[in-house]
Amino acid sequence: MDVKALREYWKRMERLGIIPLVAELEGKVVGHLDVLFCEDPVLGRYLYLDVLMVHKEYRRRGVARALVFKAEELARERGVEKLVVQPESYEGPSGLTYRSCGFTRAYEVVDYEIRSRSKTIPGSVKLVSVAPSEPPPVKTHPLLCGWYVASAKMWDYATYPRDVYEVFQRHSITFKVDVEGEGYYVHLGENLMKLGAGYLCVWAPPNYGAESFRRVVEVASSIARTLNMTKVETRTLKPLSEILEEAGFRYGGRAEPFMVKEVG
Questions:
Q1: Does 181 share its domain with 224?
Q2: DSSP string covering 79-122, please?
Q3: Half-sphere exposure of 261 (CA within 13 A, CB side)
Q4: Are 221 and 180 in a shared domain?
Q5: Number of structural domains the chain divides into
Q6: Alpha carbon distance 209, 216 (integer Å)
Q7: pLDDT by residue (tens digit) across 100-129?
Q8: Roughly what angle, to the nearest 10 degrees, separates helices 3-16 and 151-159?
Q9: Residue range 52-61, pLDDT digits in tens
């Protein structure tokens, strides 16, 4: 990682409050685990386990387990009773590691997609710009769709998208949709891995409804068409699937689940 990318990565860690845990063995740094204390209306209060890496020459020696148990200790110190992680592969080595540490499959994750529609923005809604300095809505607004990572990290990615994550130029926009006085925060980005596709994240007000969410999706779809995205993809937790289907989304398959360990 070059100096510029490292600087941007560290800025992101400071903004989010990510805590890096480091494992040392034989006088060498052999692994690390990034953790983030989170709170949102969907999952509650929890410690999110983000990036876990162990040097290939030191695997199968308990390094990953030691880092996870250190995270558990940190959660107890802060009075947080739940650890949450989304393994790279539930059936693969990462999922096996977390299961060996006491994690269980808890939140099923589902992919959805919708074809973009007319370029006309409905006149019944109001669009408002969102500044990066605006307080994150993640503690008050449930993330209805966009569960690629924890809600707090997804919001940071939405408001500060062009840094270490970006290699190629892409379309990305974050805005607020006002529907009858209720504000929905929306992030729409171009998926560089799929030509003509975009991805969508929506943070809804606490008293959201199916009809207002449908209108927000209509707005996002119209903007996506303007940006030459022929379809919009998203990801949600299974209990939230129904409202997406009512808004016109089509099932696109299952993704890796979130796993949980209670530590209270």
A1: yes
A2: T--EEEE--S-TTSHHHHHHHHTT-EEEEEEEEEEEE---SPPP
A3: 22
A4: yes
A5: 2
A6: 11
A7: 999 999 999 999 999 998 777 777 789 999
A8: 130
A9: 999 988 888 8
